[in-house]
Amino acid sequence: MEIEVVFGKVLKEFRKERKLSQEELAFICGLDRTYISLMERGKRKPTITTIFVLAAGLEILPSLLVSKTEQKCGL
Amino acid sequence: MEIEVVFGKVLKEFRKERKLSQEELAFICGLDRTYISLMERGKRKPTITTIFVLAAGLEILPSLLVSKTEQKCGL
User: Fold this and answer.
1) Do residues B34 and B22 lie in contact, with contact meaning Cβ atoms separated by under 8 Å?
2) TM segments (chains A, B) (predicted)?
């Protein structure tokens, strides 16, 4: 499975854990809702900067988003 | 300091620790040397996929690249 697809699943999990809608996360992060949706479906590859923005919105460390993705990738 | 600038410094540190030239890291990663140079100078924002490729080339976990960047950002 492509890394951005795995990352998208991780992003969705963290968002749902915090009971946030895509709309709410997008607003918090100052991003467009459709961009959140595209990332969650693995259709967009977030940059390092976007990863930091998403993590801040989810109130977690950026490296946690990446390490969960690693684990799901079997690294 | 911008996140991509901090990331670039972290990337350069890991590359130098492994005594790799930009040329060598680019070859290992299948990336262009100029792209490595641009990232190290904070002129490009790597995507999640490129972060995984760089980490594989450096033989470290992608989350380590991100956590070192976090620390330098004071997170």
Assistant:
1) no
2) none
Phi and psi dihedrals of B47, rounded to 5?
-85, 175
> Tens digits of per-residue pLDDT, B43-73?
999 999 999 999 999 999 999 999 999 999 9
Is CATH 3.40.50.300 the right assignment for the domain spanning A3-72? Answer: no
Q: Does B21 touch chain A (CB under 8 A)?
A: no
CA distance linking residue B62 with residue B50, whole number of Å:
10
Domain B3-69 has CATH 1.10.10.10: no
Nearest to B65 by CA among B27, B29, B24: B29
ipTM of the complex: 0.95
